[in-house]
Amino acid sequence: YSAFNEGGFPSLLADGSDIPKSQVKKLTKIFNAQERKWKAAEKEGKDCNNKEHHINEDSTEIISKNHVREERRPSATSATTIDSEIIVDEGDLGRLHMANGTFGGRQGWEMMSTGPFTHQLVF
């Protein structure tokens, strides 16, 4: 989309032409559903904050904590500084390990490929 109104709703297609009525209707339906979800989540968040579950930190404390985290983070080494090649035995790291059970609900697994690749699962 190339243009949006003040509410964030698209008004023109990428090529600058008007959006067809059917697409406007579909986008309006999706947009309104998303607004309802957003308002419900926002209301739920405000309710949680009213129940003493809010953060009492000001922005300077948060910034100082982030600065400390950055200092503790190990510095990255460039590939040119490594003198010798390290060979790591991967062992079984290349295989997919699956475990039986529900683990709190359905967990989907999707594998997509955009090229002429072959995927082989070894169990």
Automatic annotation (TrEMBL):
Residues 42-80 are annotated as: Disordered. Residues 42-57 have a biased composition (Basic and acidic residues). This is Uncharacterized protein.
